[in-house]
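Protocol step 4 of 5: obtain the predicted structure for the target chain.
Materials: sequence only (see below). No template structures provided, no constraints applied. The aim of this step is simply to have a reference model before the mutagenesis design in step 5. Sequence pasted as it appears in the construct record:
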Amino acid sequence: MDPFFNPFAPSAGQRPPEFAGRTQLIDDSVLAMRRALAGRPFRSIMFLGLRGTGKTVLLNELGKKAKELGFLVSRLEAPENADLAKLLYPEMKKIMRSLSTVERTKDLSIRTLGILRNFASIFKIEVSGVDIGIEPTPGVADTGYLQTDLPDLFENIGEAAQDASKGWAIFLDEVQYLTQDDLSALIVSMHRISQLGYPVIFIGAGLPLLAGLAGEAKSYAERLFMFYNVGALDPEATAEAIEKPLNAADVKILPAALKEFVEGTQGYPFYLQQWAACAWDVAPCSPISVLDVSTASSEAIRILDEGFFRVRLNRMTKSELDYCSAIASLGEKGPYKTADIARVIGKKPTTLAMVRSSLISKGMIYSPERGYVEFTVPLFAGFILRQKQLHPASD
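Step 4 output (structure tokens):
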């Protein structure tokens, strides 16, 4: 079929043609945003899930809805070894410049911009451009301690937003890359906002380990945030995500072929989009057959192996790769006992602690419970096993 009309979206963060299986998450998030804007009690949100489950897509979709509701929106992604002060500063400045154009909140906005100048100076943030007529506001957000200064800034921004009948929605992806101190400062800031009832909401996304990191940073995090697990779609939602875009394009798929899709992708949204895009391209005409899906599966795996999977493999050291190879040798389904991994490698578990910690910090694996680890990328074990078959001499 003509690739030009292919409806599927096998690209990171791109909205799929059919948002199947996520209605409740979106509805709950929109409700929280509406309550925040109205000054009613609410909880900020954290989406937890493996790579390829659609967390970034959810953030993007909710960012659009936040704008429609009247929020000023900040979209951010935390890099590894993120510096939260430097990450947030440009967005906070942008928000306050926008609020300063509202006449009734102009004085408060200018004062807050002065506080931002203190903040930038104390945290050695390079400031581009010149804020004409903006003087520093002494004694606020200038201690150099982020858990003190960031809540003060959030409070002032929240007050200005409320006066302007606006809200501020912060969307942060890859939250697990924040340091514990930075995550603590963010949690304390949102706690302050929650207590004061200002229209500022935080919606973050990260790997499953994030819930534990948040709890370690501040014990009250579980009461401050709603934690949602964003996992694989169930078979019904998987089928819906495939059939609806096809039906809209007046293309059919045979029931047996649809079953192959559901089983092959295991319901993971990114893989589903890749498989479906390949099936469209290889199918000569409607309906899509089992043979079409089988051919598409081989092509989809090749594309994932050369891109999505390989970029993660290339980031590993030799010892980290050996550790992941040992995991994969235990089978494609986890979680995996750390004691079993050590047995495969031929070392004591305690001697592998640093390698394991490094892989966790890189976001390659996580610990679902004590004594176990799991890959953060679904089907990654299968990729490693395929590489071992292709290059047996590297074992």
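Step 4 remarks: Strands lie at 44-48, 71-77, 167-173, 200-206, 225-229, 336-337, 365-366, 372-375. The CA atoms of residues 325 and 384 lie 6 Å apart.
Proceed to step 5.
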